[in-house]
């Protein structure tokens, strides 16, 4: 429960603020940044929540802004921090970008949103689709006066009634993101698959949907045998439209979907994954003159699949200059802002292997503190369409609406890199790989 | 001249005032927007109160909202004028549009002006019974707002009873806000010292809450779950029932719903006796906890702090999941630090290799703080898992080999703890450590190395030379280093009296004469006296066997842990501190203060300092102080010097070491041994580490000394020491 919410610029000046309870004066907002700076100066960490003189400061960062909540009680930290994140995403949906300027330009509507999204410090409606139905920039031009959508308080708080489409269609995107970490010996130290099923729903009325997956637990509980492979999802998270108790009972995924685009569910598997795109680099470091890289990429998936838009980021010393590249395929660019070079390959066929070489100059004089090089891992971005690592399949999507229309479900699969697909395989040439103990 | 021109701000407000009274609608509205814009940038526009107020009655919803917003901000400064707004407010609560009704009642509750309160009760009664759930849910919270301002009004008007009835509302959002309001009122009443339970959750209410839980919005679920965790029952069946109904919430996409569900389960699981069911719950809890790590970093951090607590209670909770806590290169530092702690918690025989190679990787990153913490984690792993200690030491040696200053220093500090835990096992490492002597510039690292040298003085050929370096620069060193040097030299003297008499004499002289710190002086006097009266006793005390150290399972007292687990996802559970320590309240009973005091003492002494990282500065001294501490208990020396030392008690030492036995027992046994064979011969085994034998100029192990040598040593120090002391008193 928050007493006050404020958005601050990087100098700690509040751009907009809203007080929900009287127990924390708004003057405390201005104390936030000095405390942060003081902590940094003392070499202490600045954690998302901290307490000072009986006031708790909870904050998140978004680009060049701080979003800050103040509280005097022993409040629910997870709830407040998540609310701040939700506030960011709602404001982004309203203004495309959330930055100082869009806040200054839209202060009226932000006040309205802050009034609607939280009351007396308790989060209320944070669904931007529903909010957009009754809080709009153009509201005063409307002839008819807006009323609260029934959905705001309905048990089905995410869908309004009376939606009509000429053609009833549903698009399902099954997107799997692979996070993995390969250590310097080439072993996968950690890997996980984060899956998400995203829907674009263009359906009339109040349709009841049921989604069937090749879920191993479901097959086991219902005693049915799976045709083909069944997968074991370690943890599943659902959009609030899914009836959780039914899923708990018999693993049925049943729901009334929101209109338009949303994420129906996400799941996680920690089954070991072989690196789909393998990269290794041999580094030849001539201190004070140059550094050379030889990079090898290998597509370790079936021949009939193709990885698109592959981007390989190989870290180089901050002070490297005069880059020279030669690649057997694709294009290479130097990205000094990231202290790396990027090898871009539009299409990488399954089983294929390519090489590239890079050459950089190094300054002859180095500072004393550079004795330890930053050892950032190689990171890779890619997309493999029509393929899922886990083998998840949509078995059916049943759509029932009382008007009895027929609707078509479309399904797409894609596998891509997660936010942490890294390989520590850039090795000094000649140095033996570090053997695990 | 200056009177001619009005200050520009006033001019702006003057113009705004004119615009606010314009006959054109659009112009008035634009003026209101400008007023609000000025308010946003914290210009004072309170003077426009009457002008803004005139624009309150309008069909334009946006304009109405802006005026309301203005009133909320300035009602407190203009209490007389607020009265003028009351009529419109009351009228608006009768509007045909539910949005306007809700807006009016919501804003009235926020005005916080004494005068308006009397007018709020009637419209509030009406709104609580409104047909529209949107109005009802807003009105429910308004009762809590009113209670905050004037509790009597809520009680007189029977609003509490109305709220109780509203728990049965057909609309789940209304139920959720009603629960929020009642919980808020309850919390306020408790703070105010009320003993009665304003929101008593009966079993009937419980069932209603369980039904609403499945239907309401995400935030509503959080409220209902917190209310469920307050439900008191000792009935096992009922607890089981609650757990079963709450478990499905683990699948919710909102992390705060998941954590709220974890809280309810942790509380109600206390009454569940069935092992099977408990295990099942724990098993179901693990995957959602891991998934919390796919949230944004700030949420991850909150989750990690809570997971840390959960693991202290249930170490088996995430047994096989250590890898998910491996740090990502781009994780913010605060996330990495928490992950490190959890990784060490989860370390076991099966995963220690993976952990070590990961920690070694971290130790070569750029962030100095993170590197240091990673090295500390290696030390903690060595202390936690006996079987892996040797591998940890090898990793540390590799790190020392990098010769990066802060890496070496931290590794030295960590090595000291390993020597404490496994005495005379890794002596082969000592030459490598000593070779880095000159690199050390941090007091803690220096003190640690000196401690090691003193402890193994008999095995280090040139110990007197090494310590001599520090004795030479004694007065320039920091106090922890001085204290360590003092103790180490005395240890050296007791082990190898032959060549070190001069050194002892010098250090005692310097410490007693030229040192500013009373602690250092006092300790020097104690040693001096001890050495001069009874060298045998000195040996027994200074070279006494030290109790082993171990890694604690908990960082807070068991009592506090239970309390914090009951508040999962709150700030208290994030800070790992009881609520009273950070919520300024001024109304704490003496009992609670005392209890918390004990908790805090535990917290401080047992937890954060000594136990978690045995290495941090001050307590490194504490650990090493044992010999000095033991003195005054066993020997009862007289004089000022002795009494001041009493401040650090052996009880604290016991706490640190994790043994809770009577400290006196330890002493008795020490002295028992001492009289028989003072220097308990150190194991003669040369170096268990294959590759690290003593070679070249490195010192070689000394043969154990016989007591007779010691006894026979005539110490000129004794004489002069006594004379000095006598002269002093």
Automatic annotation (TrEMBL), chain A:
User: Single Gene Ontology BP term?
Assistant: vesicle-mediated transport
Question: Which Pfam family name is an example for this entry?
Answer: Clat_adaptor_s
> What domain of life does the UniProt record list for this protein's source?
Eukaryota
Please state where this protein is localized.
Cytoplasmic vesicle, Clathrin-coated vesicle membrane
Entry keywords, A to Z: Cytoplasmic vesicle, Membrane, Protein transport, Transport
InterPro entries associated with the record: Adaptor_comp_med_subunit (IPR050431), AP2_Mu_C_sf (IPR036168), AP_mu_sigma_su (IPR022775), Clathrin_mu (IPR001392), Clathrin_mu_CS (IPR018240), Longin-like_dom_sf (IPR011012), MHD (IPR028565)
Record-level GO cellular component terms:
clathrin adaptor complex; clathrin-coated vesicle membrane
Q: Where is the MHD domain?
A: 167-424
- Chief localization class? membrane
Family, according to the entry, reads as follows: Belongs to the adaptor complexes medium subunit family.
Supply the PANTHER family for this chain.
Answer: AP COMPLEX SUBUNIT MU
Q: What is this protein called?
A: Clathrin adaptor, mu subunit
From TrEMBL, chain B:
Per the record, a Pfam family? Adaptin_N
| SUPFAM superfamilies in the record | ARM repeat
Q: Which GO terms describe its biological process?
A: intracellular protein transport; vesicle-mediated transport
> What InterPro entries does this protein's entry cite?
AP_beta, AP_complex_bsu_1_2_4, ARM-like, ARM-type_fold, Clathrin/coatomer_adapt-like_N
Amino acid composition bias (Polar residues), ranges on this chain: 707-722
Q: Tell whether Transferase is among the UniProt keywords.
A: no
Its predominant location is membrane
What's one GO-annotated cellular component?
A: membrane coat
Q: Which UniProt keywords apply?
A: Membrane, Protein transport, Transport
Q: Where is this region: Disordered?
A: 678-729
Biased composition of type Low complexity is found at 678-689
Q: Where in or outside the cell is it found?
A: Endomembrane system
UniProt domain Clathrin/coatomer adaptor adaptin-like N-terminal: residue ranges: 10-534
GO MF annotation list: clathrin binding
The family assignment reads:
Belongs to the adaptor complexes large subunit family.
The entry's function note states:
Adaptins are components of the adaptor complexes which link clathrin to receptors in coated vesicles. Clathrin-associated protein complexes are believed to interact with the cytoplasmic tails of membrane proteins, leading to their selection and concentration.
Put simply, this protein is called AP complex subunit beta
């Amino acid at each position: 429960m928050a007493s006050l919410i404020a958005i601050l610029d990087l100098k700690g000046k509040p751009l907009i603020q809203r007080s929900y309870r009287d127990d924390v004066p708004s003057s405390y907002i201005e104390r936030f940044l000095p405390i942060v700076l003081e902590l940094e100066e003392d070499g202490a960490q600045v954690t998302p929540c901290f307490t000072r003189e009986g006031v708790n400061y909870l904050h998140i960062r978004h680009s060049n802004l701080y979003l800050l909540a103040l509280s005097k009680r022993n409040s629910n930290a997870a709830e407040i921090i998540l609310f701040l994140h939700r506030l960011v995403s709602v404001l982004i949906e309203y203004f495309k970008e959330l930055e100082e300027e869009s806040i200054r330009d839209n202060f009226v509507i932000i006040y309205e949103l802050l009034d609607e999204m939280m009351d007396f410090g308790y989060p209320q409606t944070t669904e931007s689709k529903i909010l957009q139905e009754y809080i709009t920039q153009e509201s005063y031009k409307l002839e008819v006066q807006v009323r609260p959508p029934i959905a705001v308080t309905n048990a089905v708080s995410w869908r309004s009634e009376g939606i009509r489409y000429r053609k009833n269609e549903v698009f399902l995107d099954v997107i799997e993101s692979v996070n993995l970490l390969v250590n310097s010996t080439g072993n996968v130290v950690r890997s996980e698959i984060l899956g998400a099923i995203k829907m674009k729903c263009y359906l009339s009325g109040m349709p009841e949907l049921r989604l069937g997956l090749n879920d191993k637990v479901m097959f086991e509980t219902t005693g049915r045998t799976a045709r083909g492979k069944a997968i074991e999802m370690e943890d599943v998270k659902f959009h609030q439209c899914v009836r959780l108790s039914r899923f708990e009972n018999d693993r049925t995924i049943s729901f009334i979907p929101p209109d338009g685009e949303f994420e129906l569910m996400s799941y996680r598997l920690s089954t070991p994954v072989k690196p789909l795109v393998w990269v290794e680099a041999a580094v030849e470091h001539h201190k004070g003159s140059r550094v050379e890289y030889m990079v090898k990429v290998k597509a370790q998936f079936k021949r009939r699949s193709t990885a698109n838009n592959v981007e390989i980021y190989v870290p180089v010393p901050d002070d490297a200059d005069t880059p020279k590249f030669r690649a057997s395929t694709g294009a290479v660019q130097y990205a000094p802002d990231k202290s790396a070079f990027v090898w871009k390959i539009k299409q990488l066929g399954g089983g294929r292997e390519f090489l590239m070489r890079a050459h950089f100059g190094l300054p002859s004089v180095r500072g004393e503190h550079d004795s330890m090089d930053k050892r950032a891992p190689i990171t890779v971005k890619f997309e493999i369409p029509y393929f899922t690592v886990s083998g998840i399949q949509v078995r059916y999507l049943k759509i029932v609406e009382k008007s009895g229309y027929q609707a078509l479900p479309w399904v797409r699969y894609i596998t891509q890199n997660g936010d942490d697909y890294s390989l520590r395989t850039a090795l000094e040439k000649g140095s033996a790989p570090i053997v695990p103990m | 001249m200056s009177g001619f021109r009005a200050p520009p701000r006033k001019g702006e407000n003057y113009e705004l005032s004119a615009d606010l009274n314009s006959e054109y609608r659009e112009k008035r509205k634009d003026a209101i927007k400008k007023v609000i814009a000025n308010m946003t940038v914290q210009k004072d526009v309170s003077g426009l109160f009457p002008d803004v107020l005139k624009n309150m009655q309008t069909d334009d919803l946006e304009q109405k909202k802006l005026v309301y917003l203005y009133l909320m901000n300035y009602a407190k400064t203009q209490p007389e004028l607020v009265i003028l707004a009351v009529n419109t407010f009351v009228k608006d609560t009768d509007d045909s549009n539910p949005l306007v009704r809700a807006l009016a009642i919501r804003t009235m509750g926020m005005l916080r002006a004494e005068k308006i309160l009397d007018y709020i009760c009637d419209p509030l009664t009406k709104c609580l019974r409104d047909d529209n759930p949107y109005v009802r849910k807003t009105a429910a919270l308004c009762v809590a707002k009113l209670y905050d301002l004037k509790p009597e009004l809520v009680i007189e008007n029977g609003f509490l009873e109305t709220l109780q009835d509203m728990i049965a509302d057909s609309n789940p959002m209304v139920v959720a806000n009603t629960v929020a309001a009642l919980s808020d009122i309850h919390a306020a009443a408790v703070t105010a010292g009320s003993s009665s339970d304003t929101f008593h959750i009966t079993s009937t209410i419980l069932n209603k809450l369980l039904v609403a839980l499945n239907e309401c919005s995400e935030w509503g679920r959080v409220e209902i779950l917190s209310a469920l965790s307050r439900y008191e029952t000792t009935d096992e069946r009922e607890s089981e029932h609650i757990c079963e109904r709450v478990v499905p919430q683990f699948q919710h996409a909102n992390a705060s719903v998941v954590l709220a569900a974890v809280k309810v389960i942790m509380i109600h699981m206390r009454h569940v006796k069935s092992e099977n069911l408990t295990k099942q719950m724990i098993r179901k809890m693990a995957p959602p906890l891991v998934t919390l790590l796919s949230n944004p970093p700030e949420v991850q951090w909150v989750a990690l702090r809570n997971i840390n607590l959960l693991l202290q209670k249930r170490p088996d909770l995430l047994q096989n999941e250590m890898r998910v806590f491996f740090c990502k290169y781009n994780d913010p530092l605060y996330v990495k630090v928490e992950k490190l702690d959890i990784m060490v918690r989860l370390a076991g025989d099966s995963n220690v290799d993976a952990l070590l190679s990961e920690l070694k990787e971290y130790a070569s990153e750029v962030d100095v703080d993170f590197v240091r913490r990673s090295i500390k984690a290696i030390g903690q792993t060595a202390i936690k898992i006996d079987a892996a200690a040797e591998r940890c030491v090898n990793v540390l040696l590799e790190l020392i080999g990098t010769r990066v200053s802060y890496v070496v220093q931290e590794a030295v500090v960590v090595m000291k703890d390993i020597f404490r835990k496994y005495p005379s096992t890794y002596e082969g490492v000592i030459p490598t450590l000593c070779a880095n002597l000159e690199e050390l510039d941090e007091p803690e690292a220096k003190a640690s190395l000196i401690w090691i040298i003193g402890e193994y003085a008999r095995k280090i050929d040139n110990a007197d030379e090494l310590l001599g370096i520090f004795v030479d620069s004694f007065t320039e060193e920091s106090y922890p280093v001085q204290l360590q040097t003092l103790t180490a030299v005395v240890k050296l003297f007791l082990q190898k009296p032959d060549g070190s008499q001069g050194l002892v004499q010098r250090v005692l002289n310097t410490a007693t004469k030229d040192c500013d710190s009373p602690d250092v002086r006092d300790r020097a006097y104690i040693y001096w006296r001890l050495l001069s009266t009874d060298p045998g006793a000195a040996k027994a005390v200074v070279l006494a066997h030290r109790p082993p150290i171990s890694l604690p399972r908990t960082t807070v007292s068991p009592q506090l842990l239970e309390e914090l687990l009951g508040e999962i996802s709150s700030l208290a559970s994030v800070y790992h501190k009881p609520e009273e320590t950070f919520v300024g309240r001024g109304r704490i009973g003496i009992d609670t203060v005392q209890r918390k005091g004990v908790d805090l003492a535990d917290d401080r002494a047992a937890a954060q300092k000594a136990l978690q990282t045995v290495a941090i500065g001050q307590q490194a001294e504490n650990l090493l102080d044992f010999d000095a501490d033991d003195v005054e208990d066993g020997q009862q020396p007289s004089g000022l010097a002795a009494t001041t030392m009493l401040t650090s008690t052996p009880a604290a030492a016991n706490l640190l070491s994790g043994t809770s036995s009577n400290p006196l027992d330890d002493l008795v046994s020490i002295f028992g041994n001492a009289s028989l064979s003072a220097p308990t011969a150190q194991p003669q085994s040369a170096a268990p580490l294959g590759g690290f034998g003593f070679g070249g100029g490195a010192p070689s192990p000394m043969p154990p000394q016989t007591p007779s040598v010691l006894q026979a040593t005539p110490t000129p120090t004794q004489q002069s020491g006594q004379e000095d002391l006598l002269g002093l008193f």
